[in-house]
Protein: histidine kinase
Organism: Komagataeibacter diospyri
Amino acid sequence: MPTGFPRAMPRPSRWRAWRSASLRFSLAYGMMFALSSILFMSFMWWGTIGFLERQVETAINADAHALAERWIMGGLPTLALTIEDRLEQNLDDDAIYLVIDPQGNYLTGNVSAWPAKVQYTDRWYSLPDTRAGLRGMAELHAYRLPGTAQSHTAGQLDSGYRLLVGRDVRARGILRHLLTDSLLWAWVMVTLLAVSGAVLVHGIFRRMVKTVARTTSAIAHGDLSRRMPLVGNGDEMDQVAEAINEMLDRIVRLMDGVRQVSNSIAHDLRTPIARARTQLEDAALHAKSDAELRDAIERAVGNLDNVTAVFEALLRIAQIEAGARRSAFMTFDLVPVLRDVADLYEAVAEDHDIRLALDLPDSLSFYGDRSLVQQAVANMLDNAIKFSPPGGTVHLRAQVRELAPGRVIGPTGEGMLDLCVSDEGVGMSEADMARATERFFRAEKARNTPGSGLGLSMVRAIVQLHGGRMHLSAHNPGLTVSLALPIAACAISKSEEDFPSPPHISGMTERSPFPHQHDMNSSVE
């Protein structure tokens, strides 16, 4: 037998149940429900019984006060007559009266002798009582009768006579027992309901947690198609399930994007790298002069620059999607920025016999990253000019959208900017427009044009960074790329201020087929 420290014994299975969060939650729910019902019913019991006791005591005190007044007014004859009248009118037969003289002799009332236990006049007594052959309980209180009118004149305040007033509380005892039994049975039923509710909550909680655990476990083991089931009633469980499913869908899209980008990089970069290697190898073997060798090296460097531009574009898209550029957000006038980009591309458009038409307001305050907005518009114009036929027209439009008739500002001060670029080129099919913003995607009609298919991916990343939306639609002929960008309230409040002129377009990432265009602006059309 091997020696050493003994292995820890496994924890008994009965203790594993206490580690269940759903069981602890359901037990806590059941205990809270049962305790709250006990407190509520105890409050009802004490409130009801206390009210009955206060009602009896109030009635006895009021009765004794009235009898004392009758005693003061007319003495013993008047008091005795009043007691007899009240006994005759007492339909419930629960009133108790007794008057004795200073020597303890019976004078009037329906009790034959003064109870021996009643010694003081400043406290209440509960004594057994037998009336009509039935035993019960009586609530009693003793009073000292004051002196009569004549004794008051003589200065005597206490006559020595004593009055005993009480009520038979047999009915109150019956009601107390009935109320106690009812509340006990009600508490038993409430406890059973609490236990049933705890079991139900335990089942629901456990089912929900197990569903999440099964789904996440399946995802962890590679089954990316598993999703949380939806009940369909729109409750909190459905909201949690929808949030988890949306998260899983985004993870799948990101993984597919990484897989697609990896494949595209391997496919698209292999050609320029192989071309550069072939050119250098051919020049090393067959170049007959320094000029031929220098020309081959320049061509190879150009191909390698294209590879570098692609990697720079991918890194910049990743930075934008990660939100790393939000620190550069500022309020500026967008119209000069758009005009500068249009001036940059106007010469290129004229060289290809293409007209560039602008539809811009006089000024347009906007809150965002100036250089990124420049780059997005430059990519859109480059794509439009690249695929427009000679004699065509490229339109650049920008306007503030009307949120309501005659209103361009929402209730919280924000607005919406519509920015679109339209061309009259070959356009795209519906299927291609659905995939146009994917990295390295190029439609069949754009296979023979320069570019790597990252232009609209860059535009989409910039739009998402600004909290906007991008939409592609047919222009018949051609394509329209529309951007819907929110205008922050701080930008609208500064619409009348003078803004500094925008800087020249920078951040060159991809080579363009046009001589003076160096920004990341490749098209996917």
